[in-house]
From TrEMBL:
It comes from Marinobacter daqiaonensis. Pfam families: Iso_dh (PF00180). This is 3-isopropylmalate dehydrogenase. Coiled coil: none annotated. The record marks Y141, K192 as: Important for catalysis.
Amino acid sequence: MSRTVLMLPGDGIGPEIVAEAEKVLHRINDSFELGLSFESGLVGGAAIDETGEPLPNETLERARKVDAILLGAVGGPKWDKLEMAKRPEKGLLGLRSNLELFANLRPAILYPQLASASSLKPEVVSGLDIMIVRELTGGIYFGQPRGIRELEGGERQGFNTYVYSESEIRRIGRVAFEAARQRKGRLCSVDKANVLEVTVLWREIMDELAGEYPDVELSHMYVDNAAMQLVRAPKQFDVIVTGNMFGDILSDEAAMLTGSIGMLPSASLNSEKQGMYEPCHGSAPDIAGQGIANPLATILSGAMMLRYSLGEEEAAKAIEAAVSKVLDQGLRTADIMSEGARQVSTREMGEAVLAAL
Ligand code: NAD
Ligand code: IPM
Ligand code: MN
């Protein structure tokens, strides 16, 4: 059985970090005889420059056929003035919605070697292992109507719509309860049910699902408190489930607990477990082209791909072990650099992971 992985490097540091993850995946493919074949395609600003579209049809059609996708990042100042529908980010959002990748898993795990790279005290973050389950194809990101309209008198008004249907809430809820069941059995649903009706319904559906998962302990938290608790006492969380926008924000916050956003991988899955894998960070225009970006989030996203879409748990573990070994060796990209460690470039970090495999 031949399985295909589509690589979409995108923009900014995207091509730099994907190149390192690609080397690692090629090596794993050979050593574990996985029989994977690799293709690459255009998305985001890179696609706009070539074809005029952030998500060319060819990319979308290929994305539909492959078993998994590894994406770098999209966006950058070059395309920031384009109208919303033509921006690089639409390429990413279009892949998510067309492939119905509604379940976004963002694991924030602190590698013990990086305890001093976190901006929080080591005792607050040591042993940290949180799974954020973010709804990815609904909520305010996709709700209609949306736009900028002119009011009487000529003033303009921007508007978006925050909507979730019961079935959308139920399917992401199930993913989160299942995840909690496989972990420590605690699920915290994050909402704004004191203000927003859409999240009153969210809370109701989560409570209803809890009846099906008596082994999981469900709690609820308002998003403002959750943001505070994440930096006060992050280890109280096991699995967090939340909507699209709150999940976007809380996962960047959680990333910092692990030392750097350059360490946080992600999986975006549909109900067939087809998946797109990407680091949680963006195209980092401020450091693009300098060869200093941290490729580990992308390499670890490759491990998630092996685990969730390709069913290759051993190969996934091998990559994670190699990353840990490289950190043991004291190698650090600039974003996770600390005293006594050796600073390495993007490529050197990728090579070190290869050597550790
Ligand atoms: P960003 O995540 O690109 O960068 C935020 C900060 O983190 C920057 O200082 C950057 O240098 C640093 N950083 C990010 N990744 C890093 C890495 N691997 N190693 C070391 N440092 C890293 O967020 P931003 O600056 O808000 O956005 C830049 C562009 O990326 C925007 O166009 C945005 O829309 C886009 N974006 C894309 C994605 C994606 O493709 N999934 C995600 C977030 C943002
Ligand atoms: C992310 C990014 C995207 C999001 C943007 C680039 C559309 O921030 O993957 O976290 O908001 O989902
Ligand atoms: Mn984000």
